[in-house]
Amino acid sequence: MSLALSWSGGKDAAWALHLLRQQGEDVAALVTTVIQGEDRITTHRVRRAVIRQQAALVDLPLLEIELPWPCSDQLYSFAVGAALADLKQREGIEAVAFGDLFLVDVRRFRERLLEPIGLAAAFPLWGMRTDLLAQRLLRAGVEATIVVVDPTRLDRRLAGADWNAALVRRLPPEVDPCGERGEFHTLVTGGPMFAAPLVVHPGEVVEIDGLCYADLTLTPAFDE
Questions:
Q1: Helix/strand/coil (H/E/C) assignment for every residue in 97-146
Q2: With contact defined as beta carbons under 8 Å apart, do 122 and 3 qualify?
Q3: What is the sign of the dihedral through the CA atoms of 216, 195, 54 and 114?
Q4: What is the model's pLDDT at position 220?
Q5: Using CA atoms, how far apart are residues 176 and 178, in angstroms rounded to an integer?
Q6: CB-CB contact of 58 with 30 (8 Å)
Q7: Are 31 and 63 in contact, with CB atoms under 8 Å apart?
Q8: Contact, 73 vs 89, CB < 8 A?
Q9: pTM for the whole thing?
Q10: Dihedral over Cα of 199, 35, 98, 89: its sign
Q11: What is the mean pLDDT of each run of 10 residues along the chain (224 residues)?
Q12: What is the dihedral of CA 55, 60, 63, 64, to 10 degrees?
């Protein structure tokens, strides 16, 4: 089956890609959404150049869907649905995969988005215990940086920190080790899905709409 993968640049999306390839699935493209006029992806606000370099390191084309921000669910569904319908026609994809773990309302939103355009929704990580999944990723050599922190749930000083075994052990018990409830988001910089490490440099941490974002930039050789 040929499919596209929803790509945030984070560890769950990256591990979903790794599993799909291990299972012999034909991953044809990555799909991400970009804030119009800001050159950053939605939700994580990672620079577009960084996401493009990730796509190059996993050797896949990247479909970038530009959206206004904030963006209503209705407008999101229209813009993303139209882009995926076009991708289906051009590339023959049959499904879109997501790195979601257990949030049922998010899964249903994805399924409702894809149903009218005749695409299946795939969830290769669904139902995995997140504590065991975090350990599995770390044992496999996945390297990631925390790029978003919700300071109402986690210490804001962790924005820009490495997501590693020591940090996972220190997380409060109410914080999901994979950040599945939005406590934090990551950017993957290394792992078995990459042809080479992604080299990024830390920048400033800013607070926008109540969330703390760590800015990461590429080396000059890769930056755009």
A1: ECCCCCCHHHHHHHHHHHHHHCCEEECCCCCCCHHHHHHHHHHCCCEEEE
A2: yes
A3: negative
A4: 64
A5: 5
A6: yes
A7: yes
A8: no
A9: 0.94
A10: negative
A11: 96 98 97 95 95 98 94 94 97 97 96 97 97 98 98 96 97 95 97 97 94 91 49
A12: 10
Is 158 buried (19+), middle (13-18) or exposed (0-12) by CB count in 10 A? buried
What 3-state class would DSSP assign to 217?
strand
| d(C-alpha 15, C-alpha 22), whole Å | 10
Question: Can you tell me which residue has the tokens 């990024």?
Answer: 200
State CA 98 to chain mean position distance.
Answer: 9
Residue carrying the six token digits 């914080």: 175
Number of residues that this document lists for the chain: 224
Task: Give residues with Cβ within 8 angstroms of 218, minimum separation 6.
Answer: 47, 49, 50, 53, 199, 200, 201
Instruction: Give the pLDDT confidence score for residue 201 in this predicted structure.
Output: 94
User: What domains can you pick out in the chain, each with its CATH number?
Assistant: 2-122 (3.40.50.620), 136-218 (no CATH)
Q: Is 50 helix (H, G, I), strand (E, B) or coil?
A: helix
What are the residues whose beta carbons fall under 8 Å from the beta carbon of 13, sequence distance 6 or more?
Answer: 5, 6, 7, 98, 99, 188
101 alpha carbon, distance to own chain's centre: 12
In angstroms, the CA 213 to CA 218 distance is 16
